[in-house]
Amino acid sequence: MNLNLQQLDLNLLLVFDALMRERNLSRAALRLHRSQPAVSNALARLRAQLGQPLFRRTAKGLEPTAAALSLHVPVRQALHLLQAGLGSQEAFDPHTARTFRLSMNDYAQLRLLPGLVTRLKTLAPRLLLEVRPDEATSIPAQLASGELDLAIDYLYFDEPELRYQPLGEERLAVIGRQGHPAFRPGLDREAYQAAQHVSILPRVGRGSPLEIVLGSARVQRQVQLLVPHYLTIPDIVASTELLGTVPRRLAERFAGSHGLQLADVPFEMAPVQVNLVWHRQQEATPGLQWLREQIVQIEQG
């Protein structure tokens, strides 16, 4: 990759960053307050200066090449440093078109998104939220590169550049079908360990809060089924002999509609801390400050 800094127009890097974030020419143009032809022309100029393509057009939008992916992290860091040094970040206008990318699991989506979408419809009607699955191994890198703006997670990552805002605590509960013998007369540790379970598929390189708690409490489960999403567990346990251990608010939400029995976990465990996570580079970004405030107000309100 050939890059002559003396001939480089800083505006080309701003266009490149917007395209990497939006992966869409029209949305990048709206983000930059420029016309689509102007953004397309800027991309062509940058591609000519670098001597290689940066994006491929697909049915879903723009797909970055390997060269673009390797370039984006240093470009993003350089732009953040420049903005911080000049103190030139503009105030965020919630009525402008903007895309934010968040990572969270399906249960967090169910809990947060209805209230957030309702709030944004009034406060920021042109804002687009793109929600992605919580892939633990890639979250720190995606936050650093700007591919993700925020994550909602229970994990603390081994990355000193990440920042955390507590959103609240989750307690776990056990659910099973009505009449399940494990609940008679009450669910105890012995019955819990003797039963068959459905559980969340562990994320690569990381355990779930339940697995961490079970390990420290020396509790052994007989897991018969692993699934990727919390929201499938109520349906599964309602029509099988499996037990599921899920966030208590999720258990309470589905217990009535699915005819489920619900019990506390039969061993000592501390609540699970849920956090809003972002990269230090985004600490003072006005748009993300604003969005973080909305999420915190919904989660803690």
TrEMBL record:
GO molecular function: DNA binding; DNA-binding transcription factor activity
Coiled coil (UniProt feature): none
A Pfam family: HTH_1
Protein name stated in the entry: Putative transcriptional regulator
Origin: domain of life: Bacteria
HTH lysR-type domain ranges (all copies): 8-65
Classification via PROSITE patterns: HTH_LYSR
Matches recorded under InterPro entries: LysR-type_TF, LysR_HTH_N, LysR_subst-bd, WH-like_DNA-bd_sf, WH_DNA-bd_sf, YidZ_PBP2
Protein family according to the UniProt entry: Belongs to the LysR transcriptional regulatory family.
Alphabetically ordered keywords of this record: DNA-binding, Transcription, Transcription regulation
Organism name: Pseudomonas paraeruginosa (strain DSM 24068 / PA7) (Pseudomonas aeruginosa (strain PA7))
